[in-house]
């Protein structure tokens, strides 16, 4: 396997029941070691798409290919060492400390009956330092603020040493400062040869860090490509069905409603 | 009892060896199994207020025991076997019915089917109580339902000990996995867990241990609910430490309760009464002190 696995979706179809269609023969090539943002209205199937790439949801039609091999042919352990997930919200009925929670990310490298070893503790400590969250180490996760929780979720996924990282609306409940922290961390990851795929409702988040933009509507890809090609007034207006204007300020694009 | 009495008196030796020691071991096994199972269920269901009887196991055992008291002569062995068999039938039915339910996540389905199975079993129990001879059989049933270890013999220990040892060893070995399986389904999957299969496996191991001890002890409430809370308070939520902690505390708690049951009055007080009373009191104390870490799922 190459260092960064190729991720391709081919004619993927998925529905939670037989009548419903959430993904409708969706095809997509994700740029390796780049940041891909998935933008689309509520109910477009963004989360379903992430779960399908993860292998958690099995497509009823089509296939998800990792280095030209269907992900169904990988073992769960192999997959968990390649693909990490930062879910939209984690529910914490029990109060793990932030460090314990991050340590859970080492599970793909542990046996069914084993406990974390020194190398796992070290890997978790390294991630804590990398993300500069040493002060959160011993705090109970459910008592952290939204931004801090998001950082801890990210840290847990990074402890997994994924080659592909999926994030479901990582900045939705964050203020601008925390948004910048998370998105900059994603940029660093892409530089370290990790493929990053995240969903978002915020075009500005995509503008800030995405290399590839995917516009998703009703279970299908409306268009996909560089920001240059995809982030246009026309395509966003078509995506959301309301008047949207994209202007260039210096090198940055600014998106606003008209 | 004075030591020299124990050394010299054969009756005293017999008393200790054939009554006290097996009972002590059984009390420890009972507490460990209930507490471990309680913690496993609470973590897997992501719900701190479930307890081992949840999946039709307690009511199944009660029905089985009563059936044996009424129709199989009511010998100790027949009661124990019938209780164990129906406890497992309760568990099996809960799993089977949860697959028939067409809505909700797996936790909701399993909890609903557990409630349904418990209701069926307890209505069956109601019929048996109605049929029972109120002067003999009904008393036996009532006494069994209150729980107690007075009938424990070495042969009980020799049957129950291996079952509990194997089941709890597996659960203990998988306690890191238990942490992972307490996360959201997709997250647990992303960490490489075969969530459905591993959950059913852990649940089955934990519940079989409880079915084994329940067949001897009858219904003993509250240990499985309250002990994991105490353990998490002391050792933190990480099952790496809180699960062995639960087993330790559960064993000690049940031994103490059994000693109280045996000694406070001249006659024996059913163990279930003591564990319920003490458990409820401790629960109130825990609940009223600062914030209890229950359900922060806002």
| Number of strand segments of chain B | 0
Mean pLDDT across residues of chain B = 88
* First-to-last CA distance of chain A: 48 Å
Distance between the termini of chain B: 56 Å
CATH class of chain B: Mainly Alpha
Residue share in β-strands of chain B: under 5%
**Count of individual helical segments of chain B:** 13
Count of distinct strands of chain A: 12
Using a beta-carbon cutoff below 8 angstroms, give the protein chain pair with the largest interface and the number of residues from each chain: A-B, 36 and 33 residues
CATH class of chain A: Alpha Beta
Radius of gyration of chain A: 18 Å
Give an overview of the whole structure.
The complex is a heterodimer of chains A (258) and B (298). Chain A has a single domain (7-257), classed as 3-Layer(aba) Sandwich (Rossmann fold), CATH 3.40.50.300. In chain A, 33% of the residues lie in helices and 26% in strands. Chain A contains 9 helices and 12 strands. Chain A has helices spanning 46-54, 76-82, 98-103, 118-130, 146-159, 176-191, 203-209, 227-230, 233-240, and strands at 7-14, 23-30, 35-39, 61-66, 69-70, 83-86, 164-168, 195-200, 212-217, 220-225, 244-249, 252-257. The longest helix of chain A is centred in the C-terminal third of the chain and has 16 residues, at 176-191. The mean pLDDT of chain A is 91. In chain B, 77% of the residues lie in helices and 0% in strands. The interface between A and B is medium-sized, with 36 and 33 residues.
Task: Write a concise synopsis of the structure shown.
The complex is a heterodimer of chains A (258) and B (298). Chain A has 258 residues and is α/β, with parallel strands linked by helices.
Which SSEs are present, and which pair or pack?
The complex is a heterodimer of chains A (about 260) and B (about 300).
Chain A lengths: L6 E8 L8 E8 L4 E5 L6 H9 L6 E6 L2 E2 L5 H7 E4 L11 H6 L14 H13 L15 H14 L4 E5 L7 H16 L3 E6 L2 H7 L2 E6 L2 E6 L1 H4 L2 H8 L3 E6 L2 E6 L1
Parallel strand pairs in A: 3-8, 3-9, 6-7, 7-8
Antiparallel strand pairs in A: 1-2, 1-4, 4-5, 9-10, 11-12
Helix pairs in contact in A: 4-5
Chain B lengths: L2 H6 L1 H35 L12 H15 L4 H25 L5 H26 L5 H10 L7 H20 L1 H7 L3 H6 L4 H23 L5 H13 L3 H25 L7 H18 L10
């Amino acid at each position: 396997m190459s260092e960064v696995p190729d991720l391709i979706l081919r004619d993927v179809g998925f529905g939670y029941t037989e009548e419903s269609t959430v993904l409708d023969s969706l095809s997509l090539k994700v740029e390796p070691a780049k940041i891909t943002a998935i933008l689309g209205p509520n109910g477009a199937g963004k989360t379903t798409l992430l779960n399908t790439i993860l292998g958690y949801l099995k497509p009823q039609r089509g296939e998800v290919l990792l280095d030209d091999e269907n992900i169904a042919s990988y073992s769960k352990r192999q997959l968990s060492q390649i693909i990490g997930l930062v879910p939209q919200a984690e529910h914490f009925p029990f109060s793990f400390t932030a460090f314990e929670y991050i340590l859970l990310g080492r599970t793909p490298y542990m046996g069914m009956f084993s406990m974390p070893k020194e190398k796992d503790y070290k890997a978790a400590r390294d991630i804590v330092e990398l993300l500069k969250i040493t002060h959160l180490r011993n705090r109970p996760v459910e008592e952290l603020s939204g931004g801090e929780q998001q950082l801890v979720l990210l840290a847990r996924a990074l402890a997994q040493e994924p080659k592909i990282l999926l994030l479901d609306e990582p900045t939705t409940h964050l203020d601008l400062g925390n948004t910048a922290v998370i998105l900059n961390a994603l940029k660093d990851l892409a530089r370290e040869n990790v493929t990053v795929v995240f969903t978002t409702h915020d075009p500005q988040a995509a503008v800030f860090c995405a290399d590839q933009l995917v516009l998703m509507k009703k279970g299908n890809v409306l268009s996909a490509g560089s920001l240059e090609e995809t982030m246009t007034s026309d395509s966003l207006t078509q995506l959301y069905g309301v008047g949207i204007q994209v202007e260039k300020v210096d090198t940055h694009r600014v998106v606003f409603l008209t | 009892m004075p030591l020299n009495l124990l050394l010299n008196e054969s009756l005293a030796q017999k008393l200790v060896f054939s009554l006290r020691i097996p009972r002590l071991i059984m009390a420890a096994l009972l507490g460990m199994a209930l507490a471990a199972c309680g913690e496993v269920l609470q973590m897997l269901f992501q719900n701190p207020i479930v307890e081992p009887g949840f999946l039709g196991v307690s009511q199944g055992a009660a029905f089985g025991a009563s059936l044996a008291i009424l129709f199989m002569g009511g010998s100790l062995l027949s009661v124990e076997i019938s209780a164990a068999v129906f406890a497992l039938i309760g568990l099996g039915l809960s799993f089977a019915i949860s697959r028939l339910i067409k809505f909700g996540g797996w936790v909701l389905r399993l909890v609903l089917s557990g409630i349904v199975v418990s209701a069926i079993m307890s209505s069956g129990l109601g019929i048996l109580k109605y049929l029972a001879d109120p002067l003999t059989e009904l008393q036996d049933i009532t006494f069994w339902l209150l729980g107690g270890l007075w009938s424990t013999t070495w042969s009980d220990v020799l049957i129950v000990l291996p079952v509990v040892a194997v089941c709890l060893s597996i659960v203990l070995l998988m306690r890191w996995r238990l942490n992972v399986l307490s996360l959201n389904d997709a997250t647990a999957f992303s960490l490489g867990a075969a969530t459905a299969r591993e959950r059913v496996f852990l649940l089955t191991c934990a519940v079989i241990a409880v079915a084994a001890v329940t067949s001897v002890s009858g219904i003993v409430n509250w240990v499985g609910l309250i002990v994991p809370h105490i353990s998490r308070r002391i050792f933190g939520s990480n099952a790496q430490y809180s699960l062995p902690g639960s087993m330790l505390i559960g064993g000690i708690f049940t031994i103490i309760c059994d000693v109280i049951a045996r000694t406070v009055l001249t006659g024996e007080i059913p163990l279930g009464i003591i564990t319920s009373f003490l458990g409820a009191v401790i629960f109130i104390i825990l609940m009223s002190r600062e914030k209890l870490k229950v359900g922060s799922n806002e």
